[in-house]
């Protein structure tokens, strides 16, 4: 009965969560702002009320790895960007790699920054366009404070301003706000405890002020390095503060090693969250445009010409009716397409729902237009498809769904929504404390229960219950396991050079360094790994040893018997978790200095426990 109720509850919860994620982007719930009687300019055949820009992210200029990364980035600045001719370029962090040769340690290298700066200078791109480059977590590794000589961003970047800011792109047809959200850590610990960004109270105040300022602009885009799911923030949270933005553009997660090639979703307030794949390995970049205040974008791969961006009719999936005057599509006279290529464009063919509409003709610059009658598509969802050919014989196709009806809802896929919209650090925190708590409660229950909870047939559960019973009743083991659990949660894990010259202490709930407390985030994930790969298997192994003891087997005597087959994997397993602890020590030494390996009670404690077990 209890199981049934539990199962039902769990199922209910799961459906609720999945439902929540999949209704994100349900247009119906979004209130249209003030566009009902919109009398804005009409989308026609002229190159007007339109500008476009480029985003590139996670460049990771490295002095040790992959020189092609820089060579191609230089070619991108010298050849691709002049073809696109963007109004501005956003470089959203991780400009340099800042990892040591072994790829475990981290430090700021002046050489990497010099290379980055020389690419910008040599290519002449800074004279052609506005270049806004901001810091990522890699650009803040090992920086005790912003005035430090190690903060090369201040010396070698184009923008040279840390902190969140508001930049207004001023055009004859309107003002467009770009708000940067700088969640990098100050002081900046070395990796890996520098994966999550933080927005504290003061920064949240600044962000609210910037959001207010942007209300005078036609449209607002927010950008930053970290996706909102990797920012630890005070209330009301970063998603709420950017709710008047049409989109938030970021980087940081790359493509998750190929698992998530497209990471786009939408906040429940309507803001699109658009992570862009990295330049580092995937050579991604993005062209985005505001055409008559309608936002559109396309994610591209370097040197894949011709590039196509359909700005009218814009994609139904990527629309934010709360902020965009989407009605303008219905009153438009022309389909509008931006195309770019290194050689002349020879044809731009347009079709809707599979039937050819004709060839778009050059308006001016990169804009091609084709007369259409939107009334033919008033209801339902339609697909527009554009094929572009250039003089080099290269051809590309781009298509998307559009709709002219109010309240049409298209949802984003579940996986990207899970990755971008979950507050992972809160989830990890809750999971970790629940697992510690349940382990402690279990131990105490078994200690004060008179008999093993389950008797009867010698099933797996009965055997586990029996050995837990023995373990909890033996003082040495009971207190060791209890202490291990409590220590994982509250004790310092290690003391080390979290920043060069600054000794810090790491706990499950955060890192203390240079008199600052950096709130825990990744630490909870490490804590969960420690529970899963050490605390739990160690306890299981102890149970198993005790069980054999009670059954009258000596520690090794069973090797001579038929039990060999069971024992061998168990010993292998124990050696593996032992190796894991040793690896942890080596890892600490590589990342936070030799001191960390020696002053790491957590790993030492682990090895000690292991010792007790093996002796036993
Ligand atoms: C853009 O901002 C400037 C300065 O704040 C202001 O004078 C101008 O009227 C604005 N333009 C539009 C079209 O809103
Ligand atoms: C930008 O806003 C101004 C003021 O509201 C408006 O007159 C103008 O038409 C808008 N620009 C576009 C492209 O819609």
Automatic annotation (TrEMBL):
It comes from the Eukaryota. Coiled coil: none annotated. It holds the Pfam family Ig_TMM62. Residues 304-405 form the TMEM62 Ig-like domain. This is MGC154928 protein. It comes from Xenopus laevis. GO terms for molecular function: hydrolase activity. Keywords: Membrane, Transmembrane, Transmembrane helix. Gene3D superfamilies: 3.60.21.10. The chain crosses the membrane at residues 425-446, 477-495, 524-547, 568-592. InterPro entries: Calcineurin-like_PHP, Ig_TMM62, Metallo-depent_PP-like, MPP_TMEM62, TMEM62_C. CDD domains: MPP_TMEM62_N. Residues 54-254 form the Calcineurin-like phosphoesterase domain. Residues 428-561 form the TMEM62 C-terminal domain.
């Amino acid at each position: 009965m209890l199981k049934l109720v539990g199962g039902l509850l769990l199922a209910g919860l799961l459906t609720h969560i999945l439902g929540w994620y999949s209704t994100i982007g349900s247009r119906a719930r979004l209130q249209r702002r003030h566009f009902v009687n919109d009398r804005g300019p009409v989308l026609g055949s002229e190159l007007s009320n339109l500008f476009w820009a480029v985003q590139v992210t996670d460049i990771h200029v490295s002095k040790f790895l992959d020189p092609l990364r820089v060579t191609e980035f230089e070619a991108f600045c010298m050849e691709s960007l002049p073809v696109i001719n963007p109004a501005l370029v956003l470089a959203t962090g991780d400009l340099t790699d800042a990892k040591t040769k072994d790829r475990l340690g981290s430090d700021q290298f002046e050489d990497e920054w010099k290379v980055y700066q020389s690419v910008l200078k040599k290519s002449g791109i800074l004279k052609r366009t506005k270049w806004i480059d901001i810091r990522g977590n890699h650009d803040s590794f090992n920086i005790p404070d912003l005035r430090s000589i190690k903060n090369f961003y201040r010396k070698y970047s184009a923008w040279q301003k840390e902190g969140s800011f508001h930049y207004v792109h001023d055009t004859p047809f309107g003002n467009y706000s770009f708000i940067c959200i700088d969640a990098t850590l100050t002081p900046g610990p070395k990796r890996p405890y520098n994966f999550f960004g933080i927005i504290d109270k003061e920064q949240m105040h600044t962000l609210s002020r910037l959001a207010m300022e942007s209300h005078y602009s036609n449209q607002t885009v927010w950008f930053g390095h970290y996706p909102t799911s990797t920012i630890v923030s005070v209330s009301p949270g970063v998603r709420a503060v950017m709710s008047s933005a049409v989109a938030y553009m970021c980087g940081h997660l790359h493509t998750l090693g190929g698992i998530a090639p497209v990471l786009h979703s939408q906040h429940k307030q309507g803001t699109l969250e658009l992570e862009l794949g990295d330049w580092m390995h995937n050579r991604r970049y993005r062209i985005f445009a505001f055409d008559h205040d309608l936002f559109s974008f396309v994610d591209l791969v370097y040197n894949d010409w011709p590039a196509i961006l359909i700005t009218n009719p814009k994609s139904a999936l990527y629309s934010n009716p709360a902020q965009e005057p989407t009605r303008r599509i219905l009153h438009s006279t022309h389909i509008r397409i931006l195309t770019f290529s290194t050689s002349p464009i020879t044809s731009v063919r347009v079709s809707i729902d599979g039937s050819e509409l004709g060839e778009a003709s050059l308006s001016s610059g990169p804009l091609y237009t084709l007369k259409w009658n939107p009334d033919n598509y008033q209801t339902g969802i339609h697909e527009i498809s554009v094929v572009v050919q250039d003089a080099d014989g290269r051809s590309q196709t781009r298509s998307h769904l559009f709709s002219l009806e109010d309240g049409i809802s298209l949802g984003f896929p579940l996986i990207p929504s899970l990755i971008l919209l979950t507050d992972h650090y809160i989830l990890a925190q809750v999971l970790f404390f629940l697992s510690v708590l349940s382990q402690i409660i279990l131990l105490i229950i078994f200690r004060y229960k008179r008999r093993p909870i389950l008797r009867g047939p010698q099933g797996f559960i009965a055997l586990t219950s029996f050995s837990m019973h023995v373990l909890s009743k033996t003082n040495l083991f009971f207190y060791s396991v209890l202490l291990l659990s409590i220590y994982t949660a509250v004790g310092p894990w290690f003391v080390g050079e979290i920043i060069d010259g600054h000794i810090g202490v790491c706990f499950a709930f955060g890192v203390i360094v240079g008199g600052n407390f950096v709130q825990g985030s990744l630490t909870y994930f490490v804590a969960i790994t420690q529970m899963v790969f050490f605390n739990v298997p160690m306890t299981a192994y102890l149970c198993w040893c005790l069980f054999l003891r009670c059954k009258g087997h000596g520690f090794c005597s069973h090797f001579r018997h038929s039990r060999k087959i069971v024992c061998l994997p168990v010993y292998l397993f124990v050696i593996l978790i032992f190796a894991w602890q040793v690896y942890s020590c080596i890892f600490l030494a590589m990342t936070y200095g030799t001191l960390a390996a020696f002053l790491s009670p957590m790993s030492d404690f682990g090895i000690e426990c292991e010792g007790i077990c093996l002796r036993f």
